[in-house]
Amino acid sequence: MQSGYTITMSAANPINRDRLVQTFLDLVRINSPSFAEGEIGSFLAERLQGLGCEINKQDYGRSFNLIAVKKGNRPGCLPLMLSGHMDTVEPTVGIVVQADDSIIRSTGATVLGADDKSALAQIMETLEVITENGMSHGDIEIVLSSGEEKGLEGARNLAFEGIRSSHSLVLDSSGPVGGIVVGAPTHITYEMTITGRAAHAGIEPEKGISAIRAAARVISEIPDGRIDADTTANIGIISGGTATNVVPRKTVIHGELRSHDAETLQRTKDGIFSTAHRICGELGARIDITEQEEYRAFRISGSNPFLLFMINVFRACGIEPAVTISGGGSDANIYNQRGITTLNLSTGMQKVHSGEEFIMVEDLCKGAEALLQAVKDFAGFRPSGMAR
Q1: CB 3.0-4.6 Å disulfide test: which of 89, 96, 233, 287 passes with 280?
Q2: How far is CA 211 from CA 141, 206, 208, 290, in A?
Q3: Is residue 356 flagged as an active site residue?
Q4: Phi, psi at residue 353, to the nearest 5°?
Q5: Residue 87 catalytic?
Q6: Backbone torsions φ then ψ of 128, nearest 5 degrees
Q7: How would you label 144-179 residue by residue, b for 16+ Cβ within 10 Å and e otherwise?
Q8: Is the alpha carbon torsion for 16, 20, 26, 27 positive or negative?
Q9: Packed helices 114-133 and 361-378: angle between N→C axes, nearest 10 degrees
Q10: Which domains does the chain have, with CATH numbers?
Q11: 327-369 pLDDT tens trace
C-alpha cells in the first residue's frame, strides 16, 4: 500500500537511559494530584525553556495547561503535537519509589504516578536527544494538560485556537510499548436526585416516603455492568438520609454510561431514566435527573495514513504494534473531537491507579525510542493526496 512517507530507522536511537530514568524519578517524586499541578508545571516549563521551546501557560480557572513549541529546522513539514497529562490520581503524598536496573515501582502506600509521568519523561527525553544532536524535524507542539484524571478537564478547556497541528500522539495508555488505542467510547455521567417525604420512623413511618427505598428500587431495576461489547453502565456513589429515626427525604445517585455506539448509548440512557421516573412516580417520590457528556467517542480507521505511519514506526524500532479499542477515555477523545487525528500510545506503565503500579526500565526506554523515531520520520509524513 502506498503510504506517502518513508521510515528511515537509524542504527540506534541515541536515548540516554540514565537521563531518562532520572527525569522520570524526578517527576514521580513531585506530588501533583489533579488541580495541584503548579510544582510539576514549573519543573517542566524550566526544562522546556532550556531546550529552546516557546512556553505558554494557559490558565483556565481550576488549573492550567502547559503548551510549548519546539520550532522545526526543516521547512515544509507538518507540525506534530505530543501530549501527556501532568496530574495523577491519589494517593501520592510522601511517595516512596523502589528502583533498580530493571523496574521502577511504588512501595504500595501510594501510586507510582507513571500514569502519566512516564509520558512526560519520554517526551522530555525525545526533545533532549533532538536538541543535542541537531536532528532534522518539523515544528513540535507539546501540550501537557491538567485535570485529566478528573474528566479530562484540562483538555476540555484547552485553547485550541493556538494549536496548529492536525496530527497528535497522546501518551496515556498502559501495557507494553507498541499499544495504539484507535477508539474510545462516549462517556456520560448523570445525577439522580430523589425526593420523598420525611417522617418520624418510630411514630408515623406510614406518613413518610423513603427516598432511599425508591433509590434501591431504581438501582435494582436499571441495567448495570457490561450491557454489550460496546457499552457499560455503573452506579458509583449513593448518598442520603440524616438519621436512623427519620424516613429519609432525599437520596442522590451518581452513575455513568459509556458506549462506542451512539444509538446504543441513547437507548440505554433513555431506558435508565424512564425506569427511574416510573418507579418514583409509583412510590409518590419526585426525581430530578441531570446529565453531562464528559467526552465523545472516536474511532480511527484501519486505513488511516497516520495509523499506518505509526505502525511502521513501531516495526522499524523492532516493536510489534498492537492496535486496540479502549473502554476508557483520554485526552485523545477531546483532540479527535476537535478534528486533530490523535492516536493514544502505551508508555509501558502497568497496574496504574493502584499501589502495585510499576514500569519496566526497558519499556520506559523503548517508548522514548519509538517516540523519537516518530518525531524524526513525521518530518516526511504526507497524508494521502497531499503533495510533497
Answers
A1: 287
A2: 51, 13, 9, 17
A3: no
A4: 65, 30
A5: yes
A6: -60, -50
A7: bbbbbbbbbbbbbbbeeeebebebbbbbbbbbbbbb
A8: positive
A9: 50
A10: 17-184+297-378 (3.40.630.10), 187-295 (3.30.70.360)
A11: 999 999 999 999 999 999 999 999 999 999 999 999 999 999 9
Burial class (CB in 10 A: 0-12, 13-18, 19+), 386: exposed
The per-residue pLDDT for range 136-157, each reduced to its tens digit, is 999 999 999 999 999 999 999 9
Place of cell 516493536: 319
Residue of 37, 115, 148, 369 with catalytic role? 148
3-state secondary structure 136-157: CCCCEEEEEECCCCCCCHHHHC
For every residue of 350-385, which 3-state class applies, written as one string?
ECCCCCCCEEEHHHHHHHHHHHHHHHHHHCCCCCCC
Contacts 24+ apart (CB under 8 A), 224-231: 227/259, 227/264, 227/268, 228/264, 230/185, 230/259, 230/260, 230/261, 230/264, 231/185, 231/257, 231/258, 231/259, 231/260, 231/261, 231/264, 231/265, 231/268
pTM here is 0.91
**Cis bond upstream, residue 116 (ω within 30):** yes
**Could you report the per-residue pLDDT of 96-108, keeping only the tens digit for each?**
899 999 999 999 9
Integer Cα distance of 299 and 310 in angstroms: 16
The total of other beta-carbon atoms located within 10 Å of residue 294's CB is 18
Q: 120 Cβ partners below 8 Å, 6+ apart? A: 23, 27, 44, 84, 86, 144
DSSP 82: E
3-class secondary structure, 188:
strand
